[in-house]
Design brief:
By secondary structure, this protein is of the alpha/beta class. The chain has a single domain, classed as 5'-nuclease (Rossmann fold), CATH 3.40.50.1010. Helix 3 packs antiparallel against helix 6 and helix 5 crosses helix 6. It is globular, with a radius of gyration of 14 Å.
Amino acid sequence: MKVLLDTHILLWWLAGDDHLPAPAAVTIADPDTEVVVSAASAWEISVTQAAGRLDAPDDLLDAVAANDFGTLPITVDHAMAAGRLPAHHADPFDRMLIAQAQIEGFTLVSVDRRFSEYDVELLRLD
């Protein structure tokens, strides 16, 4: 399985936070799962940190690498697809993750219920 982590899922995993749903934790920990983090999540984290609204690791790239997670750059194709998505979700970072999951064939891991309004594969977390 190939999964793309939503930003909050990544942060919960890195912090060992109890908010992380058990099915997500099991999937991420499975050595047969390819786990990927988007550049959009790194961007969202750094913007939110700079605004003083988030306590997250300053060494995010090291933390991602230490967990053997891959990284996914943002391409022009991703940007165009995100811009064309229906307006169910206003958050540009989330829209980018949806577009990337669609284009790259990843299962998206998120607790955001609005993601189900899009044609994207989601990891069942219930």
